[in-house]
Specification:
Elements: H1 23-30, H2 35-39, E1 45-51, E2 62-73, E3 82-88, E4 91-97, H3 102-108, E5 114-120, E6 122-124, E7 127-131, E8 135-137, E9 148-151, H4 160-172, H5 183-189, H6 194-201, H7 207-210, H8 215-240, H9 251-259, H10 266-280, E10 286-291, H11 297-310, E11 314-318, H12 322-338, E12 343-346, H13 352-364, E13 369-372, E14 386-391, H14 399-406, E15 417-422, H15 428-435, E16 439-443, E17 453-459, H16 463-475, E18 479-483, H17 491-509, E19 513-516, H18 522-533, E20 539-542, E21 555-560, H19 568-575, E22 585-591, H20 601-612, H21 616-627, H22 652-668, H23 675-687
Parallel strand pairs: 1-2, 4-7, 10-15, 10-16, 11-13, 11-14, 12-13, 14-15, 17-22, 18-20, 18-21, 19-20, 21-22
Antiparallel strand pairs: 1-9, 2-3, 2-5, 3-4, 5-8, 6-7
Helix pairs in contact: 6-8, 8-22, 8-23, 9-11, 10-11, 19-21, 20-21
The structure holds adenosine-5'-diphosphate and magnesium ion (MG).
Length: 697
């Protein structure tokens, strides 16, 4: 429940003077529907003014002049500006307007009067000019001109200064609130209290005050991050008290472990232990298994499925594509069978009779594990005792799709445990914002026996050499991927480029070349992928749609055209598809660069990063850092929260601290009833994350 003290902030913006039917939609677009949203609309710039005279006016700065208005100089030709000559004891200042009427201008500054004039100084032909002064006032109103004035986002029909007026009105609705931050933490950083911080953010005196390092901004960023992390930590806690079937490690997974043709890496063993602890706890698991392509997530999943089956329950493993589901089933099926666990493969391509039989086996429990695609969460699919849902390449599914699979459990047994698997390495900070309510296991270690991938960075001009070397390798039995980028602006022409490339390569290399892209019918694409996976095609030209998880150990070469157009994490993920077998592998990054074919320094640094590292997490952090702003990982589309004050890159340390603080707080005071807990509840309401974001759990 929202505390009463916050009511004025949560009133609609129309409550403010000056927000009528015309202005309301403009304010809502800029800030949001609530008074709070205006109070939280941070300025983006600051105008600093200082008193000047005609003789000491500094070009480029904003001056305040005390001037005698001399006379209007009408435009000397149509389209030329109006000029008003004015002066002080030290010289002339010309006020200039490119629009408006002489009458209007003379009303503002009647010749013979004295005026206080503010505006940005320009010099032209030795003349001091002030185009479009921002204030012209009689001397007795001089103090209406602020020495520094924040600049707000504006829009057609609502100027920055009008926004500022509304923000000031909104600030008046902001109450002083009891401190929710730890006193020592605040004190050590010299941060102001909340109300003072909010005021300071709206009264910047310098560029520094606008930066992410300004104490007031940091304070509000931390407030925002803490509120968000609290919401996530609460969701996590809610899950931790949701009963779920007890799944204990058993004989089946021991047999499976013995049947694996390898021993688990330390990281895999650790992940298995964490998952087993969750599954045996009696409370619902919500865990993210993060691991690079090739880090061995499948074996971890298989052991969990075997445990579930041996404990008398069913498990489901869902993959985003038919070919992935099929590959999983081909590998897991025999291993599970050896461990006495029955499994079926369910895809959209089963025949009617076959499908009926499989659905029956799931319903009566004779099939203990279902591996499948989207076909798994369709309404007709019913389980006898589903207890564990595993989602591979989880980002390829929507929240509701994961939930539909989980909803297939029997409520009398409790909730369905969830294991989400992802090969997209993301920095820890992003993991916290996106999956803060999940527990995370990371496979940081690669299985042994993998040969490192040699990565080369070359200009596109060398494409001929690359093709020659590729031919030699293919002649010796190698398989290769050739990736063409898709750039959103002109999908059709990019596609044409990929098609043309396939034709070129077929001609130059004299081998069969497959083509896979996103515009293809799914079944057709999977057929091409399968031909490649089975070794029938030596070369596959593809856009990035190539399935991430597909394992083709014989593929040892990857060429990526226009590598400079990809994100690093994406390049790394693409590269992860080679180097899966015992043979030496190579990845060739061809860059187009700028118009002159050279690569900028940052772009160079980014690609070099790939030459030096094969650690997905390290690369993701570097990508994040090097790209700086923007949205390198397409986070906005994936439900990334829109922070008002916080910047997940620049406030990285604050984010980590907020996550720790949130979990610690709830561990000590789950209901937030302690004195600090109660103030923290106000903070949560203030930012109100629950209303903004669907769960990922
Ligand atoms: P991911 O799904 O994480 O991309 P996979 O589970 O497909 O990776 O594993 C990639 C390859 O590594 C597979 O061929 C698998 O058999 C092999 N593998 C997995 N774990 C190990 C291990 N501990 N030792 C050796 N090889 C392993
Ligand atoms: Mg996989």
């Amino acid at each position: 429940m929202r505390p009463e003290i916050l009511f004025p902030l949560f009133a609609p913006v129309t409550r403010l003077k000056g927000v009528g039917p015309r202005v309301q939609p403009l304010v809502e677009r800029l800030a949001g529907p609530l008074v709070r949203d205006l109070a939280f609309l941070a300025p983006t710039g600051v105008i600093r003014r200082r008193p000047m005279t005609a003789s000491d006016a500094v070009e480029g700065e904003v001056g305040i002049f005390r001037l005698r208005i001399d006379r209007l100089i009408p435009p000397h030709k149509i389209g030329a500006p109006f000029r008003m000559r004015a002066s002080d004891d030290s010289g002339f200042v010309h006020l200039i307007w490119f629009a408006g009427s002489p009458q209007q201008i003379e009303r503002l500054a009647p010749p013979g009067s004295e005026r206080i004039v503010s505006g940005k100084v320009e010099r032209f032909n030795g003349e001091v000019q002030v185009p479009h002064p921002d204030y012209i006032l009689p001397p007795e109103r001089a103090d209406e001109i602020p020495m520094s004035e924040p600049v707000y986002p504006a829009t057609q029909g609502l100027t920055s200064r009008q926004v500022r007026k509304l923000v000031i009105a909104a600030l008046e609705a902001a109450p002083d609130l009891a401190e929710w931050q730890d006193a020592a933490w605040i004190g050590a950083r010299g941060w102001p209290r909340w109300r003072a911080a909010l005021e300071a953010v709206h009264a910047p005196q310098s560029e520094f005050d606008l930066s992410d390092e300004a104490p007031a901004r940091q304070r509000l960023a931390f407030d925002e991050l803490l509120a968000h992390q609290l919401a996530l930590a609460r969701r996590r806690r809610a899950r931790l008290i949701e009963p779920a079937p007890v799944i204990a490690p058993g004989q089946a997974s021991e047999t499976l472990l013995a049947a694996l043709p390898f021993v688990l890496t330390g990281a895999q063993a650790q992940a298995v232990a964490e998952i087993r602890a969750d599954l045996a706890s009696g409370w619902r698991m919500g865990r993210l298994l993060q691991g690079d392509v090739g880090s061995g997530k499948t074996a971890v999943a298989a052991l969990a499925l075997a445990d579930a089956a041996f404990s008398g329950f069913q498990g489901a493993l869902m993959a985003p594509t038919e070919i992935l589901a099929r590959q999983h089933h081909e590998r897991l099926g025999p291993l599970l069978q050896a461990a006495g666990v029955s499994s079926i493969l369910l895809t959209g391509r089963d025949g009617a009779a076959e499908r009926r039989q499989k659905l029956q086996a799931l319903l009566d429990g004779s099939a203990q594990v279902a591996v499948g695609t989207h076909a798994l969460f369709q309404d007709a699919v019913r389980f006898d005792r589903l207890a564990l849902a595993i989602v591979d390449e989880q980002h390829r599914f929507g929240v509701s799709e994961r939930q539909r699979l989980q909803a297939k459990g029997d409520p009398r047994l409790g909730g369905v445990h969830l294991l989400s698997m992802s090969a997209t390495p993301i920095p820890r900070t992003l993991e916290l914002t996106q999956y803060g309510e999940l527990d995370v296991s990371r496979l940081t270690e690669k299985p042994p026996g993998r040969t490192p991938v040699t990565t080369a960075v070359l200009p596109l001009a060398r494409i001929g050499d690359v093709a020659r070397r590729l031919k030699a390798a293919i002649d010796e039995g190698a398989q290769a991927y050739w990736i063409c980028p898709l750039v959103a602006e002109s999908e059709a022409s990019d596609l044409a480029a990929a098609e043309a490339r396939a034709v070129d390569l077929r001609r130059i290399l004299g081998v069969e070349v497959g083509l896979a892209h996103g515009q293809m019918d799914g079944a057709e694409r999977e057929r091409v992928m399968a031909d490649f996976a089975d070794g029938r095609l030596p070369l596959l030209v593809a856009t990035t749609v190539v399935e991430v998880g597909v394992d083709v150990p014989n593929a040892t070469i990857m060429v990526i055209e226009h590598a400079d157009r990809f994100g690093l994490a994406q390049l790394h993920q693409l590269r992860g598809r080679v180097g899966r077998g015992a043979k030496a592998s190579a990845c060739i990054l061809l860059y187009g660069g700028g118009p002159d074919g050279t690569l900028g320094e940052t772009a160079r640094e980014r690609l070099d990063m790939l030459r030096h590292s094969e650690d997905g997490f390290e690369i993701a952090e570097a990508d994040f850092r090097l790209r700086g702003g923007g949205d390198p990982l397409g986070l906005k589309q994936s439900g990334f929260p829109a922070y008002r004050f916080a910047d997940p890159i620049r406030h990285r340390a604050l984010m980590l601290a907020a996550a720790d603080d949130a979990r610690m707080l709830l561990d000590r005071d789950p209901e937030l009833t302690s004195p600090r807990g109660r103030t923290v509840q106000v903070l949560e309401e203030l930012f109100d994350w629950r209303a903004q974001r669907p769960g990922t759990d």
